[in-house]
Amino acid sequence: MKSNTFNYSLLAVGVAALMGVSTGAIAGEQSTAGSASITNVASATYFVGGQEQQKVDSNPVVISITETVKFSLVATNIDGDNDVNTNKGIAVIPNGTITYNHTLTNGGNFTDSYDMDLGSVDATQLANITVTYQTRNTAGDLVTVTNQSGADFANATIILKAGDVSSIVISEKTSGNKGGATTDLTLSATSDYLSKDKVTGNEKITNNDDSITKLPVFSIVKRVTNSLDLNNINDTAEYTITVKNDGSATYASDAKNIKIVDILPAGLKLATANGSTLQPITVTNSTSSDSVGTTTTTSTSSSVPNGFTIDGANLKVGSTITIVFKVQRIDATTVLAASTVNHVRVEDLLDDTANTTNTSKVIDSTNASPAGTQDDPAQTTGTYYPSGSDSETLNGTVPTTVGSDYAQSLITTKRGLKIEGSATKEIPVTTNGTTRANYESVITNSGDQVEGDVSGELTFTITGDTTDTDVNIGKRANTQVRDVTVTIGTVTKDISPTTVGGNTYDIFSAFPAGIPANGTATIKYNVVSSNAIINTTNNTPSETTIVTLVPLAPGNDNSVPTEGARVVTDNTYVRGLLLSKKQVIDTNCNGAVDSGETLVNTQISAIPGQCVIYQIVAENNSSSSATPTGLGFSITDLIISDELAKFTGNAIYKDDAVTTTTGGTITTTATTSGGFVTTTVNPLTPKGTATLQFSIRIKPNAATVTPN
């Protein structure tokens, strides 16, 4: 949430002037303040008996005049960015309306007027803008509500009394914008009072607004596990549909109330048990809290169940909906084509708000050329997705482009594959050959055929979790994978991605003979760190690497039954040294914290002659447990120091206040040599802490003290 809690007052300005401290304005705010006084003495003259008497003066009276000019213009959209001057990356749907929120506040002590400006917008953009601003007084009462066109607001003046606040809502209607398209807008407010050469350069505040067109990006993959035995009318084939909201698209957004439709090809029906009871259609959402919708079967005129519709499903970015169902032939006389393909489509009315006039609707299908009928409507992805963000493949390699779709024919192959070996390890902020994280995953082929003896038949990917943002490791996302090898039997070979800089590895490239039936392949790789960042507010940054098995059958079939997991998740935690500094006033200057006082990491106030205690705490935040292997490490040759020059200009260092305590072993007593207060600790064991504490005395007439 954006916030701005900085406040100016005349008292603060006066103190700053006496201390020689600058009072520059904060982001999103301009201010000036001054004071003057009027001293007035009355007098009287008079006569007595015709004789002029001595003039009489009254006591003086003084009027203190205080003038404070302060205003702020703050961008208030919740955008994950704390910059009060920007509304950044505000999401809008195709043909939707962007809303930018701002707050204009008169923080001064008299009425001021503000000239508003929308920057360099063209006539087309200006015509699509409307503005509403509401003004409330200091009591929160609504004073005025104004609705204006963009053209009128671009030259508007807002008058605010002292303490008044105006909430400004700028609405901009978009048209023809596709996913990833951006717009920008500036909003400026100029103080009339400050424009009159009162404070040069402080009269204007500008906020920057920008938007990005976002919408769900569907990647649809439909797989079938086996063929139908035409000699057995009760034989079934199982389909798995995976609908993913493709997070690889930077413009992807959560989907709500989507529809998924599957109408079976002629000759097929939803499978029944014992010829009557419909076998279940299972629908699961990878985000367990999200709706899977309501499933309704469809039927032909002869009441044969020939498909289904799922209404009201929700799908967050990166999440998947998985649908599993079985089919069979309608009857023994049905003749099926050898390469029968069953297509599926997803529909999403982008603006699902009630009573809306927006009719933007994404229709995405595994069928590249739908008939354009009611049962098989034409795709609209070309209208809303940028070029290259949707493709369809049949019975081939699953495409990897954004929003790609895949469907396959029935297959006859029976296979069994799984991958195992998830682990958790810890590494320091910068690794070497001994401190890196080494991971191992095992692929088991439990089927009756060789796997991976054809190019592209058996691949695996090593990817990073894009939600990890606390650690800066490597050059791709936040994870750098190195030294990937595969071992089959007693032979170990290096393996490289199929494309430069990619993350997909083909077993065939290293072992053309593949993995034999009942054989295994061991994948090894390591994760390294270089100058990772950890801090006291989030001292458990982590990186997730995901090894995913991607098997394809001869004939480019993409559906393989597994005995267990298809994904291995390895977690690497970056640990190291946390360093924190606190301070507290020592009234008695005895090097001890006063009773009732507490060391804090926030700003404190001191006066000349007082003492301040500084405490520096170093912590090894790696795990103290040795289980599992790979957790916890000692920090050696730790030097804690504080530069004397940071405070000696305004304070006196107290030699007798130096103390050191530690959870490790002190090898060097704390000293002040070389311009530093310093101590050495060796080692600092996992979860151990080392504390350096000393004090200073504020010099007389010190202007300011800035602790490090």
In short:
This protein is mostly beta strands and 708 residues long.
Tally of discrete structural domains: 4
Helix content: under 10%
Q: Under the CATH scheme, which architecture of the largest domain would be assigned?
A: Sandwich
The helix count comes to 6
Task: Determine Rg (CA atoms, Å).
Answer: 36 Å
Secondary-structure-based class equals mainly beta
Topology:
Blueprint: H1 10-19, E1 29-40, E2 43-44, E3 47-48, E4 51-52, E5 56-57, E6 61-75, E7 86-92, E8 97-106, E9 112-117, H2 123-127, E10 129-136, E11 142-149, H3 150-153, E12 157-160, E13 165-173, E14 182-191, H4 192-195, E15 204-213, E16 218-224, E17 237-245, E18 255-263, E19 268-270, E20 272-273, E21 277-278, E22 282-285, E23 292-299, E24 305-315, E25 320-329, E26 345-349, E27 361-365, H5 381-384, E28 392-394, E29 405-407, E30 417-420, E31 424-427, E32 437-445, E33 458-464, E34 481-488, E35 491-494, E36 504-506, H6 507-510, E37 520-527, E38 542-551, E39 567-574, E40 577-586, E41 611-620, E42 638-643, E43 651-662, E44 666-671, E45 676-681, E46 689-698
Parallel strand pairs: 7-15, 16-29, 28-29, 31-39
Antiparallel strand pairs: 1-6, 2-5, 3-4, 6-8, 8-13, 9-12, 9-14, 10-11, 10-13, 14-15, 16-17, 17-25, 18-24, 18-26, 19-25, 20-21, 22-25, 23-24, 26-27, 30-32, 32-37, 33-36, 33-38, 34-35, 34-37, 38-39, 40-41, 41-46, 42-45, 43-46, 44-45
